[in-house]
């Protein structure tokens, strides 16, 4: 298993409870594939560098997890299916 970091940018129209629900779905997606979620850090609302879907701010969440490399594409496909996630980025952790 390799260590990854996932940053998700979630619509600012989503309230705090819904952000938690969305992240629960992401964690479930990772866990259902045998992955281990080490931590999830909510950074709160931040200003965007450029507009995304006409939004100038969004909710940021960092998730650190371990997963087999061949399963990353499946997790990303599920993340893309969640409509309130504006952008996401998965990177291999140096940790």
Radius of gyration: 13 Å
> How many H/I helices?
2
Mean pLDDT: 94
Structural class: alpha+beta
User: How many strands in all?
Assistant: 4
Distance between the termini: 13 Å
Proportion of beta-strand residues = over 45%
Q: Low-confidence parts lasting 5 or more residues at pLDDT below 50?
A: none
The topology string of helices and strands comes to EHEEHE
Global geometry = globular
Structure summary:
The protein has 95 residues and is of the alpha+beta class. 27% of the residues lie in helices and 49% in strands. The protein has helices at residues 16-31, 72-81, and strands at 2-10, 36-52, 55-67, 85-92.
3D architecture notes:
Helix content is about 25%, strand content about 50%. The protein has helices at about 15-30, 70-80; strands at about 1-10, 35-50, 55-65, 85-90. A four-stranded antiparallel β-sheet has the order 2-3-1-4, covered by helices on one side. Strand 2 (about 35-50) and strand 3 (about 55-65) form a beta hairpin. The chain is globular and about 35 Å long. The relative contact order is 0.34. The mean pLDDT is about 95.
């Amino acid at each position: 298993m390799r260590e990854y970091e996932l940053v998700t940018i979630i619509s600012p129209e989503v309230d705090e409870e819904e952000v938690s629900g969305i992240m629960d779905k992401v964690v479930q997606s990772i866990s259902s594939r045998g992955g281990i979620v080490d931590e999830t850090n909510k950074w709160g609302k931040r200003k965007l560098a450029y507009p995304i879907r006409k939004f100038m701010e969004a909710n940021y969440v960092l998730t650190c997890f371990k997963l087999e490399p061949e399963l990353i594409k499946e997790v990303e496909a599920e993340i893309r299916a969640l409509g309130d996630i504006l952008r996401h980025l998965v990177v291999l952790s140096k940790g």
